[in-house]
Request: fold
Amino acid sequence: MLNKFCKKPLYEVTLKMANVATGVEKADMVIKNAKLVNVCTCEIQEGIDVAIAEGRIALVGDASQCIGDATKVIDATGQYIAPGFMDAHIHVESAMIGVGEYARAVVPHGTTGIFMDPHEICNVCGPDGVKAMIEDGKRVPLKSMSNVPSCIPAVAGFEDTGSHIGPKEVREMMTWDGVMGLGEMMNFPGVIYGDPNVHGELAETLKADQVITGHYSVPDTANGLNAYIASGVRCCHESTRAEDVLEKMRHGMYALMRYGSAWHDMPVIIRAILDNKVEDRFACLISDDTHPDTLISEGHLDYIVRLAVKEGLDPIKAIQYVTINPATCFRMDHEMGSITPGKCADIVFFDDLNDIQITRTMIDGDIVAENGKMTVEIGKSAFPASVYDTMHVGETITPESFKIAAPEGAGASVKTRVMEIIPNRVGDYERIMDLKVADGAVQNDPDNDVIKMAVFERHHKTGTKGLGFLKGFGLKKGAMAQTVSHDAHNLLVAGTNDEDMALAANTLIECGGGLCAVADGKVLALVPLPIAGLMSDEPVEVVADKITKLDAAWKDMGCTINSPYMTMALMALACLPELRLTNRGMVDCRTFQFVDLFAE
Amino acid sequence: MLNKFCKKPLYEVTLKMANVATGVEKADMVIKNAKLVNVCTCEIQEGIDVAIAEGRIALVGDASQCIGDATKVIDATGQYIAPGFMDAHIHVESAMIGVGEYARAVVPHGTTGIFMDPHEICNVCGPDGVKAMIEDGKRVPLKSMSNVPSCIPAVAGFEDTGSHIGPKEVREMMTWDGVMGLGEMMNFPGVIYGDPNVHGELAETLKADQVITGHYSVPDTANGLNAYIASGVRCCHESTRAEDVLEKMRHGMYALMRYGSAWHDMPVIIRAILDNKVEDRFACLISDDTHPDTLISEGHLDYIVRLAVKEGLDPIKAIQYVTINPATCFRMDHEMGSITPGKCADIVFFDDLNDIQITRTMIDGDIVAENGKMTVEIGKSAFPASVYDTMHVGETITPESFKIAAPEGAGASVKTRVMEIIPNRVGDYERIMDLKVADGAVQNDPDNDVIKMAVFERHHKTGTKGLGFLKGFGLKKGAMAQTVSHDAHNLLVAGTNDEDMALAANTLIECGGGLCAVADGKVLALVPLPIAGLMSDEPVEVVADKITKLDAAWKDMGCTINSPYMTMALMALACLPELRLTNRGMVDCRTFQFVDLFAE
Reply:
C-alpha cells in the first residue's frame, strides 16, 4: 500500500536519499554511535549511526560523511535505538480522549503509529465520526492510521445506533486518505455462516487491496477459525488461550496479543510462543482498549513490551512484535517498522533493553517527545460541531420514566429476569428473582443487591427505552448514568431510586454525555464526554483525575468492584452472554431473542 | 498488491470459502493426512488435511466435513506437503526456451511461481517482447509474474540495442496485467550517483506501489549499499560474499541467494545465516539463470533447496526461502507462499524432507504435474511473428568483413589490446600483445591462443561493428557465432579464420539467430533460437541436446573450458571489467571509455 503517513513519499526523494547516503548532500540529522535493535536480523548492533533526511532514513552504519554544518547530531552513546512502536489494534475512544490528546499520552511512551478502529464514534456519528477522528489525528505527529469500522450496529435488530455501515459505506471509505483496512470484524458468525452483507464488506475491503482485521473470540480453532481466515481476515486480537494464538499463527493469521487496561490476555496466551518452539513472525502485541489512568500510570506499548519481557520473551522479539511484525501485517513493512534505509525515521531511544523506558521519540525524523513529554506543540482539537451534539433522547426524563409497571394480575411479588454480573468477567448470568410490587410497580431490592437499569435511545429521538434490573454492583444508595455503553452508546442509567436516576440521566443530557454518579439529589462525580458522548476535549490528566473521582463516588455509594463503569458499559451489549438490556428491551444473548422482563 | 495470478480473486469467493470450511458446501479436492511443512511457524504438523475450492485453500486441519460425493480425495499418508516454490529472480531466456516450455521444465520440480525479468528479449524487442513473454506465460499454469526490465540498454552510449526503457516506458508497463515490479536495477552507479533517468524509473515503480528488484554487485556495504537501498530497492541477488548477505538483510533488503547454472554463490554466501545467529526472514533462494541441461538433469528450486540443506540449512527454513519469504518480498504473502486458509492452492508433495524430490505439483488446486511430468496439456507457443524477425544486420557478411586493417605505418607487428578471459569468472584482463601484420591486416596468433572477434549490430541495420582479439578459449580451428550476447544481444562472432567466421555469422542470420560452431567450411553444430535470437520454440530436451552437441563441437575445435558459449556471451557486455568489445568498438570497462584497438 502507498504510505500517506510520511513527510514525503519515497518516490519524491529517492535522489536525495542516495545523495545523503553518499555524503554528496548532508543529512538533516545524524544519530551517532547507538546500539541498534535490528528487527530484521533480530540482533543488537553496536556503534551504529543513522542519517536522516526528508523524514526518512538515508543510511545505517557509519554516517560520518553525512554530517554537514546544518546537520543536527544526536550522540546516542550508551543508548539503544529501535523502530517506533506500532499498535496494530486500538480503539482511541476507550481512553475517553480524541486522537490528538491520545497522541500526547502515548508518543512519549514510544508509540509512533496506531492502527485505530474508531468503532465507538462510528456507532454514534457514522462515517462522519470516523472522518473526524482521522482529521483530529492530522494535528499530531502520531501516525493515526484508521480502519473502517465493520460492525455498526454490533447486533443488528436488537438495538438502535446512530449509524449503519454496510458494503456501500465500506467501499466509499476505503478510498479515504488515512484508511488502512477494515476494523475488527466482530460478526464472526456472519463470516462463518455466510451473511451476504458481512461478506460484502469483506469483498469491498479486499477489492481495495486493504487488510481485514479480525475479532474471533470462540474456542473453535477448527472449522470456524478456518472459515473465518479463508474469508480473508488477516489478524485477530481476541485470543484468550495459548492454543488460540498457536492455531492462528499456524493458519497464517497475525495473532495480536492483547494487554489492555481491562483485558489481560497476553501473559496467558504468550505461552503459545514461549512454550513451543515455533517461529513468531505472526506475533504482535497490542492494547485494544486503554483507559486514561493506565496511559498515565503505566504507559502504552512500552508497558506491554516490558510485561512480555517479564514473562520471559526475548526483548528484541518483543520489539519485533510492535514494529516489523505489525508493519508486515498491514503490508507497510517497506515503509515502516525497521531502522533501515528508505524507511520513515520513526525511532525510539532507551537505556536498558530489559526495562525499556522510552527517553526520546522521533517521528519522520523529528524529535517529538523527550523524557516523558511531547516536545512539539499540538494544535487544538479539530472535532467539528456535529460530534458535540449527540444527546437526542426522545423523552423528557423524570422519576416517572423509570417506573416499571407490574404485569396485570401480579400479586405482592413477581418473578423477574435479573442480570447478575460476574466480577472481572465480561459475561453475566440470568437470575429469576421474586421482586416486590408496590403501587402497581415492580421495586428494587437493595437488600439483595438488585437495582434498576434503563437504556434510553439517544441518537434519533425514537423515544424507545428498555427497563430492567441488575444485580451485583453493591450500590446502597444513589444512581449513575453513562453514554459510554457499548456498542450503541445509548444512555444507560442504573440506581437505587428513580429520583437519582432521573438526575443522573439529565446531568448527562445537559453536558453532552459522559459518566456521572449521583446520590441524595446531588451530583457526586461527573466526567463530561461531549465528543459523541464518548470523549473529552480536556487533557488526559484531567480526564484521568475525573475518572478517579468517579471511582470514589461509586465506592461512596457502596460499590466495591474495580472500575465499575467498565462493567456497566457492557450491560447493554447484546452479544455477550447471558442476558442484556438494550433500548429495545431485554435480550437473551444465548438464543438471540427478545425475552419478557417477567418470567411467567 | 491485488493478485492477478489465481483462478478467482478472493473477493469473489469469500462466501464459498467459508461454506466449504464449515462443510455447508463441499470441497473440490481434499488432501488427507499429510505432513504439513508449516512455513508460518516453521514446524512440521502431522495428520493434516487441506480442503480446496475455487483454486484456493478453504481449510487446513481436519477436512472430514468438506468431503462430498464429487470431492477428489488425495491420500497423502506418509507424504509431506509444502507451499509451491517461487523463484524471486529468474531470466527465462537463459534457458533458451519460452515461458511455456520453461513451465513444462520447472513445474514438475515444484516451481509454481516465478518473478521473471524478461530483460534479454526486451533488449531485442522492447516492451513488445516483454508482452510476448507475459502472453506466452498465460498458456501455462505456472504463475509467470513479470518484472519490467529496468536497464535497456545496459550500458547506454556504448552499444546499440533493439530498444530502450526509460521512466515513461516503466510508467506505462507498470499498469500491465502480469507486471509485479521493476526488474533488476543493474545500474547501481546510476542509483548511487543520482542519474535522473534511473531515479525516474524507481519513482514510477514506487508510485505504482510495486517492488523494485536489485542488482548490487560491488563489495561496498557502506555508503553505496545504503544509497541503493534508501532509493527503494527491496531485494538483491548479486551477493558473492557472506558479508554481503548479512549486511543486506540487516538493512532490510531481501538477500536472494543465487545458485544458477553458472553462478554458484549460494554455498558461500549462505554462511551468513549458518555461521551467525541472525534471523532469516529476508533470505530467499533463487536461480537467476538456468540452462536447459541443468533444468533437465538437476531441476530448479528443488535442486537449490537440496543443495542448501546439504550445506547445513534446516529443510523447513530452506522451504521458507522459496515460499513465504519471496511472497513477502513481493508483498503477496496474503495470496501465496503458505498453506493457509484463503491462499491459492499452490502445493507440492514429496516423501523425504532431507532429500526433497517433488512427486506432485498443484497450482490453483489443480494437479499439474506428477512424477516428473506435466499432467496437463500445454498449448502451442504464443509468440507473435514480430519476435521471429530480429536479424537485421546492415552489412553482407563475407570473410572480408573480418579484416582488421593495421594502423598506418605499422611494421611487421603491432601492439594490440587483447581481451583475455579468466576461467570460471565473469571478468577478463586487458593484455597488450604484439600481433603480426600481413597484407596490411593484423593477424590472429593461434600459437598464443589469440583469435579474432567481431560484434555486428543486428537490430536496426546500422551497419556498425566492432573488431578485436580474444585470448584464452583454446580454439585450434574453426569459428563460432551467437546472438545470445549480453546484454544487447548483437551478433557476436569469433574464430581462427575469416572464412569460418563469415559462415558462422551467415548461418545464424539465416536461421533467425542462435548459437553455432563451424570449422573447415562446415557447420559442426547449430542451436537455432529464432525467438528474438534468444529462445527456441522446440522442447527443452531438444534444446538441451543441441547445446550438448554445441559443447562437443567447441571441444572438437580445441576449447576445453566449461560451457564456453556462456563465457563468450559476456564478451560484449561493457559493464564487466576490464576490456570488452561492442558493436561500437572497444571499451575500457574500468574507466568507461572507448579505447583504440592498438596500444600506441
Remarks:
- Chain B touches chain A through 76 residues (CB under 8 Å).
- The longest helix of chain B spans residues 540-556.
